[in-house]
Amino acid sequence: MATRYPQLEPCISSQSPCVSVLTRNLHSLFLDRFLDYSYVRKGVGSSNNYAYLVTDESSKDAVIVDPANPSEVTPVLRDAMDSGKINLTAIINTHQSQSHSSGSHWDHAGGNDEILSQFNSLSVPVIGGKDCKSVTTTPKHEETFKIGKQISVKALHTPCHTQDSICWLMEDGDEKVVFTGDTLFIGGCGRFFEGTPAQMHTALNKTLAALPDDTKVYPGHEYTKQNVKFLTTVLQTEAVKNLQKFAENNQQTQGKFTIGDEKQYNVFMRVDDPTVQKATGKTDPVDVMGKLREMKNML
Predict the structure, then answer these.
(1) Regarding beta strands 166-172 and 151-157, do their DSSP bridges make them parallel or antiparallel, or are they unpaired?
(2) Catalytic residue positions, numbered
(3) Alpha carbons 182 and 40: distance in angstroms, whole number
(4) Span 224-250, pLDDT tens digits
(5) Is the torsion defined by CA of 127, 132, 136, 137 positive or negative?
(6) Gap between the Cα atoms of 258 and 101, Å rounded
(7) Is pLDDT of 95 > 50?
(8) What single string gives the DSSP state of each residue in 179-207?
(9) What pLDDT is recorded for position 50?
(10) Three-state SS for 225?
């Protein structure tokens, strides 16, 4: 049964939701419609993080996913709120921010406190893993809640990059997207900072691979060009070549590929592929996963 957090109680809604993609890669801030991709607004940014504003358009209830850089996210949120376009109901995080051994992993949940201070008149929950900054709610694995009336959200626990990593499946009717943070990238996966090859194998090839193939992937960073360089050293398939061509001709790849696509070209999701096994010198899926990560780290 779906859990309804008080701040996320639905309002009247009959239209499609909206995902605004706040990207700070290649100097562009980018707003993008969830279902029809018809609304684009450009701006200025400074890094490769993605933040996402997800809005149920009829009720205007909205959540911000991974507001990593508050100086760039706050003006977008303030403009949308002041103009009556959204009712901010929550911050959602894919994982904690300062998790690396150096303590310098400043992204994803790293902007929570500043966002909360900038909008201190609002009382919104921070929904994420137990180690996220100022977290108030940590849903259980596969627990669900709503944004407005139309958007269903499911928490998918995927520990490895960090132990508190959660991917968020969002559905509106037949349309499905998943926000994967640093667990799954387009053509790659995150480093195993707090986890093991076995955990990443479970996260990618059991939890995420079980999603419908047409689920669109929204990762936490724009790393596709770098990931393709590694893919081509392991696989030279048509699927990899097509991804390479797309990455060469597009600055942003979020929401353009699906879980089904990832199964075709992402070697971390093809650990049973004889060609991938040959490249790693391993046959056990967990061993293949570990060797692939080792090879990618050395590239």
Answers:
(1) antiparallel
(2) 95, 105, 107-108, 161, 182, 221
(3) 25
(4) 999 999 999 999 999 999 999 999 999
(5) positive
(6) 32
(7) yes
(8) EEETTEETTEE---SSS-HHHHHHIIIII
(9) 86
(10) helix
pLDDT of residue 18: 52
Taking the C-alpha atoms of 204, 209, 214 and 218 in order, what is their torsion angle to the nearest 10 degrees? -20
| 31: its two tokens | 């707003």
* Tokens found for residue 134: 């100022």
Inform me whether the pLDDT recorded for 206 exceeds 50: yes
* CB 219, CB 185: distance < 8 Å: yes
Beta strand segments in the chain, E = 17-23, 50-56, 61-65, 87-92, 126-127, 144-147, 151-157, 166-172, 175-181, 184-185, 188-189, 216-219
Q: Measuring CA to CA, which residue among 245, 237, 165, 256 is closest to residue 208?
A: 165
d(CA 151, CA 296): 36
CA distance 208 to 206: 6
Length of the chain: 299
Cα separation, 267 vs 276, in Å, equals 7
Phi, psi of 198 (to 5 degrees): -65, -40
Dihedral sign for Cα atoms in the order 170, 184, 94, 26: negative
What are the φ/ψ torsions at residue 276 (nearest 5 degrees)?
A: -65, -40
216 CB contacts (<8 Å, ≥6 apart)? 176, 177, 178, 255, 256, 257, 258
Burial class for 165, CB neighbours closer than 10 Å (0-12, 13-18, 19+)? buried
**Neighbouring residues of 1: CB distance < 8 A, sequence distance ≥ 6:** none
Q: At what angle do helices 285-298 and 224-234 cross, to 10 degrees?
A: 120
